């Protein structure tokens, strides 16, 4: 499924610590439930019966949380660590590490209110966040932070941070297993588009290549009356006005577009780059700019 179409899914860890009020965890669950419903986010989290209020405090809690995350590992885009109170840094670390997930992590902590510093309402999540992040850093686990050290989930500040984090998840997960296509050689006039296939492969990104002549040859052989060519021609006309452009050139572009789309589909490619200059113009007779714009 396209990462832009998939319902964003976050694994949520509610940090909890003995001595601090448990009710804050229940309130945090209600806050995130409301926020996630508003933003269309699906949560994978312990329920209130699996651990105390669904929080993670002990090593046993962490194991339960990790098992849940492993069960949904193919669905989870990222992990949100929510600290309604100080939280237990070892519990959070164990849950993340034992889950085996390799997804982006965002650490959020609630602010204390000056009028709610009694034992019944004190959070101290400011310091708890420092401890959690220090433990993650010690373990070499990368994580992201909110712009403000402490943010209530129902504030505009956190909404913006969460939307940014969802974007990070889309990029990270979209790049994993990415299949790219390279049509033709790098244009000699552009050093700016140089890249290393080996470097990409090291990060799980594969590149499939094809000689430009194969694509142009297939386009030349394609009958301009082919229904697929007619459909692509209509797509080009609907995309942008083309006054004064000869009909045969539009058909030529449509034939090329069909061949490129077929090649992408046959190789299960997510994106493609084309040798856009100058062989295509000299040997085929049109530019590829419109087709590339349509693909974007």
Automatic annotation (TrEMBL):
- Keyword Isomerase assigned: yes
Tell me the Gene Ontology biological-process terms attached to this UniProt entry.
Answer: monosaccharide metabolic process
Residues in the signal sequence: none
Q: List, alphabetically, the InterPro entries matched.
A: Fucose_isomerase_N/cen_sf (IPR009015)
Question: Does this entry carry the keyword Isomerase?
Answer: yes
Ordered alphabetically, the record's keywords are: Carbohydrate metabolism, Isomerase
MF terms in GO: intramolecular oxidoreductase activity, interconverting aldoses and ketoses
Q: Which GO terms describe its cellular component?
A: cytoplasm
Q: Domain of life of the organism in this record?
A: Bacteria
PANTHER family cross-referenced by the UniProt entry: FUCOSE ISOMERASE, L-FUCOSE ISOMERASE C-TERMINAL DOMAIN-CONTAINING PROTEIN
What's the protein name?
A: Fucose isomerase
Species name for this entry? Limisphaera ngatamarikiensis
């Amino acid at each position: 499924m396209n990462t832009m179409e998939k319902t964003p899914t976050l694994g949520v860890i509610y940090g909890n610590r003995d001595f601090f009020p448990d009710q804050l965890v229940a309130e945090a669950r209600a806050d995130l439930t409301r926020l996630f419903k508003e933003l269309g986010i699906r949560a994978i989290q312990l329920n209130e019966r699996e651990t105390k209020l669904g929080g993670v405090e002990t090593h046993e809690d962490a194991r339960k949380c990790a098992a849940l995350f492993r069960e949904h590992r193919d669905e989870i885009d990222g992990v949100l660590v929510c600290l309604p109170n100080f939280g237990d840094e070892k519990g959070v670390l164990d849950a993340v590490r034992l889950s085996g997930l390799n997804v982006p992590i965002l650490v959020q902590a609630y602010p204390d209110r000056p009028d709610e510093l009694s034992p019944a309402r004190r959070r101290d999540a400011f310091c708890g966040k420092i401890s959690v992040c220090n433990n993650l850093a010690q373990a070499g686990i990368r994580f992201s932070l909110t712009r403000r050290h402490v943010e209530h989930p129902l504030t505009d500040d956190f909404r913006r941070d969460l939307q940014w984090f969802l974007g990070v998840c889309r990029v990270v997960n979209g790049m994993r297993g990415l299949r790219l296509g390279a049509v033709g050689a790098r244009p000699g006039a552009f050093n700016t588009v140089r890249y290393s296939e080996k470097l990409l492969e090291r990060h799980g990104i594969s590149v499939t290549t094809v000689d430009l002549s194969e694509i142009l040859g297939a386009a030349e052989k394609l009958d301009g009356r082919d229904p697929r060519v007619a459909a692509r021609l209509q797509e080009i006309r609907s995309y942008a006005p083309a006054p004064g452009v000869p009909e045969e050139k539009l058909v030529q572009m449509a034939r090329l577009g069909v061949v490129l789309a077929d090649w992408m589909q046959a190789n299960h490619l997510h994106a493609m780059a084309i040798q856009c200059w100058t062989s295509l113009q000299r040997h085929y007779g049109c530019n590829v700019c419109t087709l590339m714009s349509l693909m974007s």
